Amino acid sequence: MTERQLRQNVADVMESWVGATRGSATHLEILRIYNTYTPLARGYKVQVGDAYCATTVSAAWIVTGCAKWTGTECGCDKFIEIAKSKGIWIEDDAYVPKVGDAILYDWDDSGSGDNRGSSDHIGIVTAVSGRSFTVTEGNINGGKVGRRPMTVDGKNIRGFIAPDYAMMAAQMSPIQDDEDEIDMDEVKKLIAARKPTRAEIMAATGDEWIETFEDLPPWAKPECRELIEMGALKGVKAGETVEKTVIQASLNTYIRPILVAYRAARKLNEQAPKEALAAQMERVAEFLRRE
Fold it and tell me: I need a surface site. Which of 21, 58, 60, 158 has the fewest CB within 10 A?
């Protein structure tokens, strides 16, 4: 796994929760992920009526395997303390964040100078474009998971948590050995020249198009078989057998993230009914195919 892929995995998890409302199945799942993780921060189990912005950030890092390096918390100021102790706190409103970083807010910020007040809220950066970025957050707009547009050095920024994703990606067990970084310069050149074909994009990114289950690499087949048999990975057309299931998707941007999410969900849902795990993975698969 690369740094870029791990950052995107975190963003994808946050985005998969957008639209959840307080008390909904997704909200309860976020709380379950947080409350069943050990060690439980300060020994406190978050309740349905609690503010859950920090809990949502923690849950995203738990699901993607980052939590032992980022720490977990249900309180914003406490999260800052943890980040400082780990050397991943950025005390600079003008910092240009990357996807996967966390931003903390202070609603009492005057907008003058570098804000050093108490923090009121937190979210994960899920998209960056120049000096503008999008933050996905839990517990906004009456208790929902939603998005907030922000600009670098904008008002209400308290600071950022910037985990070392390169280190974390290197420490995590890769799904496939000898994986190369995508050469984005080559991709940009190709797109700038003309509208590329799917085959050209695949070649430029080092990706692989998966038409059916039989086209999957050996390392991906066992878990994909489980997902198909569970009904979580339906593909675009069901075949008479698992081997004939038509998938029609990218290996790197569709199959690989599903397997990362499946491994994390399976570990976190050891005691959960198989049907619940299947439903959760089906939502992940549908989200990735939409994107």
Answer: 21
